[in-house]
């Protein structure tokens, strides 16, 4: 059985490891946005497919038996391309999505629909913003001149980005003590994040709650209609093995 994992997440990596251990042929597809990704079990391809038609063609040419969309919850384009490609090539598709975060007692969350709305919202909340939405969406904040940003990303960001900005290069998982220190050391009074879910980056939310720092949180886009969803790696692996007979 040949499984194509559209990856780039911790869950995608763990699923590849699990399936590889089961003896399943795995191809990991990465977008190439991280300069030095960690090694993965199985085959690895980097770069796009050329849209839904290109992905459908690739699955046929490489005799793919199932596709797992284990991309980041905000990688909307590839998820919809995968849904269209699966329908065209008649290959089973599953979305692996970690559950989103939910606010708890003491949280001061400000949900927004987009990065652009987040950029508008931070102006009324504070002046020193911890921006943890990744380097690819910084253009949305480029015109916010009355706010200072601390941008955390794996690789250095490229323009356009905010003029008043410091960069913190780091890769999760992050600890609660570490997130507390970031808020304290940089005098952060607003946190901006995407609802990525998972435990690796959740400590910043706890640190913000403890410090009374408001959180602007971008809601995740929906999974394409008709695509089944697994919440855990174990569920996704069981889905694959059930199809392997």
Overview of this structure, please?
Helices cover 31% and strands 22% of the residues. With 245 residues, the chain is an alpha/beta fold. The strands form 2 sheets. A 6-stranded parallel β-sheet has the order 3-2-1-4-5-12, with helices on both faces. Strand 4, helix 3 (76-89) and strand 5 (93-96) form a beta-alpha-beta unit. It is elongated and about 55 Å long. The relative contact order is 0.18. The model has no long low-confidence stretch (mean pLDDT 94).
What is the element layout, followed by pairings?
Blueprint lengths: L1 E5 L3 H12 L3 E6 L12 E4 L4 H11 L4 E4 L6 H14 L3 E4 L12 E4 L2 H8 L5 E4 L16 E6 L11 E5 L6 H10 L4 E5 L8 H9 L3 E4 L10 E2 L2 H12 L1
Parallel strand pairs: 1-2, 1-4, 2-3, 4-5, 5-12, 6-11, 7-8, 7-10, 8-9, 10-11
Helix pairs in contact: 1-7, 2-3, 5-6
Structural classification: alpha/beta
- Anisotropy-based shape: elongated
Largest sheet: 6 strands, parallel
In what order do the strands lie side by side in the largest sheet? 3-2-1-4-5-12
Give me the strand/helix succession: EHEEHEHEEHEEEHEHEEH
Total DSSP E strands: 12
Distance between the termini: 10 Å
Amount of beta strand: 15-25%
| Oligomer state of the chains in this structure | single chain
Low-pLDDT parts are: none
Could you report the average pLDDT, rounded to the nearest whole number? Answer: 94
Q: Which range best describes the helical content: under 10%, 10-25%, 25-40%, 40-55%, 55-70% or over 70%?
A: 25-40%
Counted by DSSP, the helix tally is: 7
**How much is the radius of gyration in Å?**
19 Å
């Amino acid at each position: 059985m040949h499984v194509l994992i559209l990856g780039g997440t911790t869950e995608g990596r763990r699923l590849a490891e699990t399936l590889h251990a089961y003896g399943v042929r795995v191809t990991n597809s990465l977008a190439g946005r991280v300069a030095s990704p960690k090694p993965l079990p199985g085959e690895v391809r980097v770069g796009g497919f050329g849209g839904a038609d290109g992905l459908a063609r690739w699955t046929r040419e490489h005799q793919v038996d199932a596709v797992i969309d284990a991309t980041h919850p905000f990688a909307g384009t590839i998820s919809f391309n995968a849904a269209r490609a699966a329908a065209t090539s008649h290959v089973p598709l599953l979305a692996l999505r970690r559950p989103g975060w939910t606010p708890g007692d003491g949280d001061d969350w400000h949900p927004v629909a987009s990065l652009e709305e987040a950029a508008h919202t931070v102006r009324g909340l504070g002046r020193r913003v911890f921006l943890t939405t990744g380097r690819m969406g910084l253009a949305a904040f480029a015109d916010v001149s009355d706010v200072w940003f601390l941008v955390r990303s794996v690789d250095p960001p490229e323009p356009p980005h905010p003029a008043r900005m410091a960069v913190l290069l780091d890769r999760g998982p992050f600890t609660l003590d570490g997130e507390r220190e970031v808020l304290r050391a940089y005098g952060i009074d607003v946190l901006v994040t995407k609802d990525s879910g998972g435990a690796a980056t959740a400590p910043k939310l706890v640190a913000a709650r403890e410090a009374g720092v408001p959180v602007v949180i971008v809601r995740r886009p929906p999974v394409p209609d008709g695509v089944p969803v697994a919440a855990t790696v174990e569920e996704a692996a069981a889905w694959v093995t059930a199809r392997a007979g």
